[in-house]
C-alpha cells in the first residue's frame, strides 16, 4: 500500500526535472542576473531544444522505479534516524555508482546507452532531462537495488531516498545550464570538493573527463579531471570571458 505522502513525493520526483528546466528556460530568456556568466559564447539551435524535449518523456522513470520498490515492500522504516541514514547512504552510493556507470557508458560497447545525452555538446535548460530510457533505467536500478539489499539489514526510509532524488533533480538541472551561477570564488573552498555547472559543461563540450556527479573526488582519484577546469571557471566567472569554441582550453595552472 502506497500512502498519500508517498504519492506526493513520487509526483514531485516525476515532475521536478521539467519544472526546473522551465525555470532555467524562463531565467535565460528574460536574462536574469544569475544567467549573466555564460560558459560558452555559442548559439544553441532550436533543433537541439526540440530533441531534448522529445527525450524528456523518459524523465518520470525515476519516480516509477522508486514506486515499484515501494510497492514491493522496500524502504518502509519510518524512524528519523533511518531518514537521515537513508539520505546519507543514497548520497554516497549515488556518487560512486554514477561515476562507475558513467565511465562504463563511455566504453565503446556501452556508449549507445549514453549517446543521446551527449548529442548536446552545449548545455541548455533541457539537457538535464534529455537521455535515453535505458540510461536512466540502468542508473535507477543500479542505485536502488543495492539500497534494497541494505534495506533488509538496516531498514531504509523512502523519504530519505526521495530527498536525495529531489536534491539531485534540482542540482543536476542547473549543472546543465550554459551559465555559471555559483559564487565567483566558489573554487577557493567548497568548489575544491563539489562540482559546478562549468565542471559538467566541459564534460559535454569535450566529451570525456569530469565524469563526477556532485563531487570532484573520484575524478581526482582516477585522474579523469580536466586540468584547466579551475582556470576555465576563473575565466568565465572572474573575467566574464566565455569560451568561444567547444574544444577551447585555458592554460592549466603551473606546477
Ligand atoms: Zn558522459
Ligand atoms: Zn550531462
Describe this structure in words.
The chain has 255 residues and is mainly alpha-helical. 56% of the residues lie in helices and 0% in strands. It has helices at residues 4-29, 46-55, 61-71, 80-105, 111-118, 133-154, 158-174, 197-206, 217-221, 229-237. Helix 1 runs antiparallel to helix 3 (61-71) and helix 1 runs parallel beside helix 7. The radius of gyration is 18 Å and the shape is globular. The model has no long low-confidence stretch (mean pLDDT 95). One zinc ion (ZN) binds at residues 117, 176, 200, 204.
Q: Can you give me a brief rundown of this structure?
A:
The chain has helices at residues 4-29, 46-55, 61-71, 80-105, 111-118, 133-154, 158-174, 197-206, 217-221, 229-237.
Q: Which structural class best describes the helix and strand composition?
A: mainly alpha
Q: What overall geometry do the principal axes of the alpha carbons give?
A: globular
Helix content: 55-70%
Q: Helices and strands, in N-to-C order?
A: HHHHHHHHHH
DSSP summary: helix tally: 10
Bound ligands, named by name, code or SMILES: zinc ion
Distance between the termini: 59 Å
Oligomer: single chain
Low-confidence stretches: none
Count of distinct strands: 0
Query: What share of residues are in beta strands?
Result: under 5%
Give average pLDDT, whole number. 95
Query: In this structure, how is the largest beta sheet organized?
Result: none
The value of Rg in angstroms is 18 Å
